[in-house]
Specification:
The protein has 97 residues and is α+β, with helices and mostly antiparallel strands. The chain has helices at 9-19, 23-33, 35-39, 41-45, 64-72, 74-85, and strands at residues 51-53, 56-60, 92-96. A three-stranded mixed beta sheet has the order 1-2-3. Strand 1 (51-53) and strand 2 (56-60) form a beta hairpin. It is elongated, with a radius of gyration of 18 Å. The relative contact order is 0.17.
């Protein structure tokens, strides 16, 4: 049997992602990975890794004063993540204790 439609692994993966509508979820995971870059290593080390579902990012912050400070800057953080993603991936950010 001879194959005439040889595809690269990258093409096969892109096609699979497209067919399963996984691009949005992959974007959310990439956005969560940007957290340390956006807030800095010190703050990132004092928070849990963000969870993102349906555009809503949730970050656990034990320190109440830090949680308050981050809440005050939530809009700036959201804008920066979306700017780095070059599209609107995150629609809201929630800080929990």
């Amino acid at each position: 049997m001879e194959r005439s439609d040889i595809k690269s692994i990258g093409d096969v993966l892109r096609q699979a992602i497209e067919e399963t509508n996984m691009q949005g979820r992959l974007d959310e995971l990439r956005a969560a990975d940007l957290w340390p870059r956006v807030v800095g290593a010190d703050i990132a080390s004092r928070t849990m890794k963000p969870l993102v579902r349906s555009g809503a990012m949730t970050i656990r912050v034990i320190d109440a004063s830090l949680r308050h400070e981050l809440t005050m800057h939530r809009t700036l953080i959201l804008r920066e993540i979306n700017r780095l993603m070059q599209k609107e991936v995150i629609t809201s950010i929630r800080f929990i204790g």
